[in-house]
Amino acid sequence: MRNFVPVLFVSVSLLSLSPACNEPEPEPNVPGEFGEACVEGALADTPDGCKAGLYCFEGYCEERCSTDDNCQTVEGWAHTCVAGQCQIFCDADGMCPQTLATPLECWINGMWCAARDD
Predict the structure, then answer these.
(1) Is residue 3 assigned to a domain?
(2) I need a labelling partner for 110 at 20 to 30 A (CA). Which of 2, 49, 91, 117 fits?
(3) What residues make up the domain containing 80?
(4) At a CB cut-off of 8 Å and minimum separation 6, what does 79 contact?
(5) What is the spatial distance between Cα 70 and Cα 26, in angstroms, rounded to a whole number?
């Protein structure tokens, strides 16, 4: 019994120092870049919002614009300026790009893409 207690103590101590027992640091919550998830209504440059110059449109960070040239290219998709905001149009099959940081689905009037509500 005397040998059992020190062995048990050492075993428990080693387990507590093991990297597998330590939780990883959580990812910092920072303002989103284009195509990243956001919370609608969050202020710009806040953790749940988008970086300055972007805004939260239907759950993902999108660009403001005055012409189509202000909207960055999303390969294979129509990304155009509509009423001062860039919007990604659904394709003829009702699909949206899945290449951004946020999965999108065809939602708004069957025309525009929005963040998928998982």
Answers:
(1) no
(2) 49
(3) 30-115
(4) 68, 71, 72, 73, 86, 87, 88, 89
(5) 34
Asked if residue 45 belongs to a domain, the reply is yes
Nearby residues of 110 by Cβ (< 8 Å), 6 or more positions away: 90, 94
pLDDT tens-place string over residues 55-95: 999 999 999 999 999 999 999 999 999 999 999 999 999 99
Q: What is the pTM of this model?
A: 0.71
Residue carrying structure tokens 């428990």? 12
User: Do residues 35 and 60 touch, judged by C-beta distance below 8 A?
Assistant: yes
Q: Would 68 be classed as within a structural domain?
A: yes
Q: Could you tell me if 44 and 54 are in contact, meaning their C-beta atoms sit under 8 angstroms apart? A: yes
Question: Which helix H or strand E contains 108, and what residues bound it?
Answer: strand 104-108
Structural domain total, the chain = 1
Residue reference for tokens 């919550």: 29
